[in-house]
Specification:
The protein is α+β, with helices and mostly antiparallel strands. The chain has one domain. Helices cover 70% and strands 14% of the residues. It contains 8 helices and 2 strands; from the N terminus they run H-E-E-H-H-H-H-H-H-H. The chain has a two-stranded antiparallel ribbon. The radius of gyration is 19 Å and the shape is globular.
């Protein structure tokens, strides 16, 4: 039960941070937001505020910001890119700030806390991109964990107290931010790259090409998720 609780708390916190970034960026860029949801599936709690429906949904994983697509794709390319990049950017900044805050709480001065946070996250970023490189090269994934490993580590962190739980959320937030910056069509980084590419080309991406990229992105994400889940199970059963 503690593993499930840790997974749910971590997932909701990280997704909430991510989707809040998209929400704020869309509002600042003048793009209407129809829904802001935490979780997936049917709504269990909701409230309409202005033109936005805020929801908590039945399955406490995932989330979404549903913007007005016509307004989004009619907006300037840099506004579209900003909306897509805001989610992962906020994840990364939140992770950095939370680790620095914990360091200060444990007695470090601000400059030392910032250096410590940068050092920790720099090591994690190096490991993350090394694992992605291994996956692309087909040589295996050694350090990248999936949902099974996240549940175990998050449960352990929650059982050890609030400080460890906050650290876990900060680290996962940082990695989720990095992951969403990858240039895959379904991810924020891929969508931002498309917006920039359309600006350079001076025309919109043909619908047939966009559909092909979407299918390719789905296939790549499924393969990656299967690979990291397999790695999780191998590590846990070893």
């Amino acid at each position: 039960m503690i593993y499930l609780l840790g997974f749910v708390l971590t997932a909701l916190a990280v997704v909430g941070i991510h989707e809040a970034g998209h929400l704020v960026a869309a509002r600042l860029c003048g793009i209407p937001v129809k829904k802001f949801a935490l979780g997936l599936g049917p709504e269990i709690i909701g409230r309409q505020i202005g033109g936005t429906r805020y929801q908590m949904r039945a399955l406490p994983v995932g989330g979404l910001v549903d913007v007005d697509n016509e307004a989004l794709y009619a907006a300037a390319w840099w506004k579209r890119a900003a909306v897509f990049l805001a989610g992962p950017a906020v994840n990364i900044v939140a992770g950095f700030a939370a680790i620095a805050g914990l360091a200060i709480a444990y007695g470090h001065h601000l400059p030392a806390a910032l250096r410590m946070s940068g050092s920790v996250l720099g090591t994690i970023a190096t490991s993350f991109f090394s694992s992605i490189s291994q996956a692309v090269a087909g040589t295996g994934i050694t350090d990248l964990g999936g949902p099974v490993m996240l549940a175990k580590v998050a449960g352990d962190a929650v059982s050890l107290g609030a400080g460890n739980a906050i650290l876990m959320i900060a680290l996962v937030s940082f990695v989720v931010g990095l992951f969403n910056l990858l240039p895959l069509p379904l991810l924020d980084g891929g969508q931002a790259l498309i917006a920039i590419g359309e600006r350079v080309a001076g025309r919109r991406l043909p619908e047939s090409v966009a559909n092909w990229l979407t299918r390719a992105g789905i296939a790549m994400l499924i393969l990656l998720m299967l690979a990291v889940t397999y790695g999780d199970l191998v590590r846990l059963l070893a």
